[in-house]
Amino acid sequence: MRLPQTRSGDAPHAARPYAVDVARSFLIGDKASDVEAAEAAGIRGHLFPGGNLEYFVGQLLRESGSAATPDRPSASF
Fold this sequence. Notes:
two-stranded parallel ribbon, about 35% helix, globular, single chain, alpha+beta, 3 helices, about 80 residues, about 10% strand
């Protein structure tokens, strides 16, 4: 799910109407301030260094054990 762009510190308010499970969520940003805002909201933040975003997300999901497998399909959005 893609949340609207927010100012630093607004993440908890932006996520509220979407019923986001903050404990199972993470944010990928392209600036250190994006990661800081996520962490201030209690969401794990990851700095995207550039390159292949799909690969970057796949790595994060595999590391967290959240990647889809044949017996556990990915969530639909």
